[in-house]
Amino acid sequence: MSRVSRLLLLLLAMLCVLGIWWPQPGGAMFQWLPGSSDAGNDAIRYRTGIPSDAVARLQRRIDAGTTELQFDAKGGYLDSVLQELKIPVSSQTLVFSKTSGQRELISPARPRALYFHHDVYVGWVQGGRALEIASMDPNLGAVFYTLSQEKTAQPTFQRQTQACLQCHDSPSLTSGVPGLIVKSVYPDKDGEPIVSAGTFVTSDQSPLKERWGGWYVTGTHGTQVHMGNAIADDTQGAPHLNLMGGANVTDLSTRIDTQPYLSAHSDIVALMVLEHQSRVHNLITRASYRARMALYFDEVRNTELRRSAGYLPDSTLGLVRREAEPLVRAMLFVEEAPLTEPVSGTSGFSRDFASQGPRDHKGRSLLDLDLTQRLFRYPCSYLIYSESFDALPVPVKDYVYRRLWDVLSGEDASNGFAHLSRGDRTAIMDILLETKPDFAAWRTTHASR
Predict the structure, then answer these.
(1) How far apart are CA 308 and CA 298, in angstroms?
(2) Which residues have a Cβ under 8 Å from the Cβ of 381 and sit 6 or more positions away?
(3) Tell me: the pLDDT tens digits for 387-442?
(4) Whole-number pLDDT of residue 447
(5) What is the rounded distance in angstroms from the CA atom of residue 217 to the CA atom of residue 252?
(6) Angle in degrees, CA 149, 152, 154, rounded to 5
(7) How far is residue 134's CA from residue 146's CA, in Å, rounded to a whole number?
(8) Which residue of 55, 177, 221, 345 pairs with 135 in a disulfide if CB–CB is 3.0 to 4.6 A?
(9) In 373-382, which positions are buried (b, 16+ CB within 10 angstroms) versus exposed (e)?
């Protein structure tokens, strides 16, 4: 390879790492893309890679004949899928805005039901042609599937690599990777979002007054208000919602027929956890994608420049810092919107959720909820236990662990982490050292350096 060719390759590689150019299979070596995700490049292989997520594993069990999905007249395959994926019915939330691929079947009278676990999300629509599923793959990020609601001897989850990404791969909505979206809208009487009124992508940082427009919400929250349970009135020219009319609703039976659903609830706590979880999943995927792209091209550069394998240039270390720091801050609930009064759900989700996590010898868990001033008792995301987190590239995970150590040990006492008291930091550190073995191992080999 000539010197000019090598320099060109290095230049294009750097542009790729910066997110300006991305390699594409079956065409020109590099092509302009507005976001990351045509993760059809050699570093990610989003469309061609073989998924290993929970749904893919379930499909393999079905194909092998060791698992059989049950079909029923009420929900089709829904109940059986939830059982196989260990998703609690209490996680049910109901969204009535037309923000799904089966939008023509969704309305305030017939909301779509969503169920979720730590790494899988399942959507069900009354009379729908398919279940809609997003499953977090350790390497690919959010992988989207549909499962036909026609009874068959061999149910097959169909992977969706085109249609779903029209919405679920956006720089503004999903951090620029195939990811998850929780939005709040101003819904009209048919559930159609009034786009001119604006929308909110919601997370644990969002004030309650901006959350859950187009959703039903069951639970109590005192004088705090949210956008749920309300239809926008635009007769005055500017759409607005009666926030007080949707507050502290504990029974939906006067608003919708709840009989077709597995639960009569759309639990406020489940909604809050869903918002936190979806954002952190997206940030994990983004940090993974960006680092893997950089590391992939480092291999090329190291070969061309005859550097030792595994050498990380300053540009890559800088990229790791830029992509991993937002993940650290999200995991530690920096800028979480505070609760001014206690919040309580209605479905039993709080109990079911807290029972899932590992506990230290004092009985403490990162899944313990607070719900008086903030979402969690110990503000460090439980997604640190997820397969997606465990699969992060080594430089990213090392950076996250180093930053967690800095903050929790008190070495980083900057204002950004002032919401964590000394007691919070000590408790989180103790829980992690007992329940996250590779963090404890990292502490042994790295923390004293």
Answers:
(1) 11
(2) 276, 280, 330, 331, 332, 333, 366
(3) 999 999 999 999 999 999 999 999 998 999 999 999 999 999 999 999 999 999 99
(4) 63
(5) 9
(6) 115
(7) 9
(8) 55
(9) ebbbbbbbbb
Give me the residue label for tokens 């940082």: 205
Cβ neighbour number for residue 430 with a 10 Å cutoff: 16
Rounded to 5°, angle at Cα 85 from 82 and 88 = 50
How do the residues of the chain divide into helix, strand and coil, expressed in percent and rounded to 5? 35, 15, 50
What is the rounded end-to-end Cα distance, in angstroms, of the chain? 41
Task: Give the integer Cα–Cα distance in Å for 357 and 443.
Answer: 22
86 and 152 Cβ atoms separated by less than 8 Å: no
In sequence order, which residues have a C-beta less than 8 Å from that of residue 321 and are 6 or more positions away? 399
Low-confidence ranges of the chain (pLDDT < 70): 1-40, 237, 447-449
DSSP string, 128-177: -SEEEEEEEETTTEEEEEEEESS--SS--EEEESSTGGGTSB-TTTSTTS
Q: Taking the mean position of all CA atoms in its chain, how far away is CA 113?
A: 17
- Residue 173: what pLDDT? 81
Query: Which pLDDT score, from 0 to 100, does residue 1 have?
Result: 46
Cα–Cα dist 132/102, whole Å? 9
Ordered by start, the domain boundaries in the chain are 3-32, 54-269, 309-447
- How far is the C-alpha of 245 from the C-alpha of 229, rounded, in Å? 8
Q: Can you tell me the distance from the alpha carbon of 305 to that of 309, in angstroms, rounded to the nearest whole number?
A: 11
Calpha distance 99→97 (Å, rounded): 6
Tokens linked to 318:
């800088």
Q: What is the pLDDT of residue 32?
A: 26
